[in-house]
DNA sequence: GCATTCAGTGTACGAGTGTTCACTGAACGA
DNA sequence: TCGTTCAGTGAACACTCGTACACTGAATGC
């Protein structure tokens, strides 16, 4: 009976719980403002905890921002991996459809994370900006590696492959941003479908360019 | 002697002068933070003027932000027009080179304006965000109109042309952002050349896709 | 010349900010 | 069982913030 809860981590768990609460509250507050304007007191007030408690978890809101970057981009990384794996065997047309659908779903599932990433990618807080930039560059690299397996890119230089990976990642981010903006329009579903349509055609354009890159 | 200064606008001119000073000071302060974190007092302090004087020109920092958007995008519009006009007769290769050069020059000439636009495009202040979005959409429209004159896009639908215009404008903004980031690296000139090289290849990729869009 | 306009001043207000520090009390390890 | 650890408290610190209001004095128009 006693050792079923092996004497460990009630404290650690409690701490984790308020840490999560801080992150969640911050994420919610960041939907309508940017990180450089987010106050430490504002966050603790939303959680219902004393301001000083904040320091037990982060030494500044910038550091909290970096933590948010990590969890947001972990999620995005999973989606990218899913896109790459899921569409590896598809024909070109349905591959594009599937990609855009997966982006739409990701945005629907984690809108606040995505909004945060897009807002802070060029935001006023350097460490956050750099963390996002570094991660996105890593994603581009991974996409480039996957691209190399495709017959259309046979014989490409590494540099050109990296360029192409970057194009896809940027395209993905812009599409996500579009889906995010869509929900604020008067007919969100129609707007989202418009975004999806443009995204599909952009990808088709890029793929056509890729096919004719050499010779 | 007396009517050489025709009794007009000494007041108006003085007002304009401090208005400019407010805009310039804000622009400088915004290089290291975002608009939602910019304080009215901070701006007036930088200009050397009483806080209340701010209200003679803007009713909030958001309104000042919108003014900045307008002047920043006027400048960008001129550069886009220059790109479209200047490269109308060129062959494809040098057209791309010229385009990228003009973007690089624009960023070198007005770095603060560009940084502001890129930062606030997805920033926390709605009216500013929307002003930027609307203007960029207008630019895309203009580029689309110009694209329609090109033989490669003969027979394209209006929707596809708009899509293409958007691709070019987004590409331009991303390139500008790249040039901006380049100056912060240890070898800025090399970084800028790397950005330029990637931008040129991206444009080449897009142009290849454009050429093979139909059939 | 004179009354009017108005860009900019100076002071004051209440409210919110980040950070500190001594503290409490429950979870912990031995 | 008992001393230690440490997440969270609450009060106080010295700021900064946006806004209001009565004001000054030079430019202005009649």
UniProtKB/TrEMBL annotation, chains A, B:
Would you say which domain of life the source belongs to? Bacteria
PROSITE patterns according to UniProt:
HTH_TETR_2 (PS50977)
Q: What keywords sit in the KW lines?
A: DNA-binding
- Ranges of residues in domain HTH tetR-type: 16-76
Q: Which Pfam families match?
A: TetR_N
Q: Which Gene3D superfamilies does this entry report, sorted A to Z?
A: Homeodomain-like, Tetracycline Repressor, domain 2
Instruction: Say yes or no: keyword Endoplasmic reticulum present.
Output: no
Give the DNA-binding residues: 39-58
The keyword Transferase belongs to this UniProt entry's keyword annotation: no
The protein in question is named TetR family transcriptional regulator
- The species is Streptomyces macrosporus
